[in-house]
Amino acid sequence: MTRREIAALCCRVVALIVLAWGIMYLVIAIQAIIAALAGTNSGRYGSEAGLFSGEVKYYGTFGCALLLYSMALTWKAPLFSAWMASDDSTPVTRPELSAEALMPVACAGVGLYAITRALPTFTRAVVLMLSTDTTLDGILGDDDWKVSLLADGLLAAWGLWLMLGNRGLVRLLMWARSARSPTLPPEPPQQTN
Asked: What is the pLDDT of residues 52-66, one digit of tens each?
């Protein structure tokens, strides 16, 4: 791989991370819209009600901006790599390290990063349930917890898909289905004397 190919690959990896952040902010915005439509945020306690509350505007705008930035990084990676690296055509890596070989590794790394970003929320929820009298229904009844768990659940699912890939997920599901307890063959009749 040349220096420009490595720089373009780095742009695409950063675009995956930015995409994860954008999706997380959009999920929070969608949850705020759902809460506004359901009437759970009805202007009580000085909070602004409606579809155009500050929370919806902020998270929606920021999420869309991150998605656009991610798309620009992905589509214009060769242009950005021309600014970042020299136009030296001699490879700086061995021939077996191509962009096609490194992209799955980069996707797995971004998937692991996404999962590690999502795990603290689930850990906090479990610790809260174990250390206090809070139940799972109490946590899911709170809008802040619901938004956090939904956003981080989607982030963790996306990270798992990036780590395993679509074929890896199919293999995992096939393994889980085949891991059922096998039916034992009938025992032979015992002879009595």
From this structure: 677 778 888 888 998
